[in-house]
Design the sequence.
């Protein structure tokens, strides 16, 4: 005998649509309440939208929804077994645009990941600043909102590629890699090699390399690029109307200043551009007879030289925070080999203390010594 429709009890599921403002402590509480491991719950929420709990009665589902909303999550109740399309898994990198906002950025990232600010800074300072893997678009939006305008949050499908190879200054590649990838001994140096590998090719190469120190494969879509004038422009180019107009339109360099810019190299014409725009500008420069190359932003290392100081009382606490001491004479190399972000932070804090600094090539204190002569 059929059961009357009035006696059929509807069942529901609770769907998390975005991480919102949830904290790691709240995630731990949710996991405990559901009797599930914290990593499983946190991973599911970072991959939102996802079904957190299914097959509930209406009252229980509504109560759980209210609890999740109160903890900062974005959630809703839908009928049992309604399909929820899983998001494209994304890898996420963070690039610090304004070091004056570093405290806000590191604290926000630490709160999002459930780490210390020191651990968050270490992630930011290790290019390309990869902080999350395999998450949903909703998590990316939540992270960007928390970090503010001082940071750029970059996301890319984790399996899409192309992938390039980054070689740290102290690292080396096995000889077979050189021939396999077409890297000549003359081009063997630190930096990013634009290999353009597919995900499968990158995975195969990584398996062959093992855990080689200082070698990593990076998703090109997570990178930003600096356009660097690597050689002085020919004299006729420095006063060519079309060239000067192009510099003004492309980079905002005033035409009266452009001839001086073209006479200096190496010099960054622009920083932090996406690959497509950077490649287009590089090709335009080549057609104009200018030597412009692309360098992956944030991957270089640098030293910081102190050129002049303001009040020593303001200088001392800055140096103490970085385990440095007041130099006996100026100019002086304070640090000769720092990650790009570390060098920017030190220079910024010194500038706030009224000091004048300059960046030098990493591990090359000779430049500062030359200034002392």
Sequence:
């Amino acid at each position: 005998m059929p059961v009357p429709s009035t006696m059929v009890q509807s069942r529901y599921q609770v769907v998390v649509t975005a991480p919102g403002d949830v904290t790691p402590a709240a995630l731990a509480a949710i996991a405990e309440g559901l009797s599930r491991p914290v990593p499983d719950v946190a991973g599911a929420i970072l991959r939102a939208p996802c079904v957190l709990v299914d097959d509930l009665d209406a009252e229980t589902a509504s109560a759980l929804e209210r609890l999740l909303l109160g903890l900062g999550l974005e959630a809703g109740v839908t009928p049992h077994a309604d399909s929820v399309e899983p998001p494209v898994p994304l890898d996420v990198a963070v690039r610090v645009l304004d070091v004056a906002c570093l405290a806000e950025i590191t604290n926000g990232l630490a709160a999002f990941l459930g780490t210390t600010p020191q651990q968050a800074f270490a992630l930011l300072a290790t290019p390309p600043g990869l902080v999350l893997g395999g998450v949903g678009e909703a998590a990316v939006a939540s992270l960007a909102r928390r970090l503010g305008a001082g940071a750029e949050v970059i996301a890319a499908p984790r399996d899409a590629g192309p992938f390039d190879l980054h070689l740290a200054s102290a690292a080396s590649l096995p000889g077979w890699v050189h021939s396999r990838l077409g890297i000549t001994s003359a081009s063997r140096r630190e930096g990013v090699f634009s290999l353009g590998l597919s995900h499968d090719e990158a995975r195969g190469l990584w398996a062959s390399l093992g855990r080689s120190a200082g070698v990593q494969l990076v998703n090109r879509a997570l990178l930003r690029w600096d356009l660097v004038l690597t050689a002085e422009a020919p004299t006729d180019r420095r006063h060519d109307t079309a060239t000067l107009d192009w510099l003004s339109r492309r980079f905002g360099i005033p035409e009266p200043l452009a001839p001086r810019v073209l006479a200096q190299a190496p010099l960054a014409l622009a920083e932090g551009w996406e690959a497509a725009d950077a490649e287009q500008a590089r090709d335009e420069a080549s057609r104009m007879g200018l030597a412009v190359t692309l360098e992956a932003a944030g991957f270089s290392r640098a030293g910081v030289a102190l050129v002049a100081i303001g009040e020593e009382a303001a200088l001392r606490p800055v140096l103490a925070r970085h385990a440095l001491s007041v130099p006996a004479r100026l100019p002086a190399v304070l640090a000769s080999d720092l990650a790009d972000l570390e060098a920017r932070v030190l220079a910024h804090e010194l500038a706030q203390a009224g000091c004048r600094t300059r960046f030098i090539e990493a591990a090359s204190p000779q430049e500062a010594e030359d200034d002392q002569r």
In short: The CA atoms of residues 229 and 267 lie 5 Å apart.
